[in-house]
Structure prediction request, 192 residues.
Amino acid sequence: MVPQPLWGITLRADLGERWLPEVSRPVRDHAQTCAMCGGRGDCRRSNWRLCCDEVWSYSDADPVVSAVIAKLGTDPAKLRAVEDLIPGLAYQLLDSPPIAKLVDLQALCWTCNAMIHFGHTETTVGWPTCEGVVRHAARINGVDPDAMMERVFYEQAAWLIRSAVPDWSITWVGWEAIRDHRAALKVDGAIR
Ligand SMILES: [Zn+2]
Prediction:
């Protein structure tokens, strides 16, 4: 789940019209299958079987997330109640401002992408669909749906904590290397 201060900050937004021919299409064409479940995607849900997902790491925030969750648990209501206190707590625990870094590009089916961005999924589709997304994720992770929901609560708690940190450093230095790596794997001629 993308921390709120980072919403809209994407390679896709930065590249504009170059995103589709230079990044998204080559990544999807090369992958052919979903990076998470190995499925071939669901053409009923979008124009494309697969989407191109930006994989971001949120360094320095992980210890904060773990420490805060250790203190507060993953109860979303409890976390929201202390949301105002979290920034101060985060700064106490951080050595330096956290860094959001684009580390990879991957092709995902609709369902796995919906799991990665579960917060967005919850706000855009009904619960029966969300339940199906959780069941799918549970199956590919080899856990039961209840255990998968616990992971969702953890991720939602992590999202709340990360969203309370306003001054992220952002880097996608090296995304060309990711693209060139895909090109080296002989994707298609669209990469220039
Ligand atoms: Zn998938």
Observations:
- Residues 145-163 form the longest helix (19 residues).
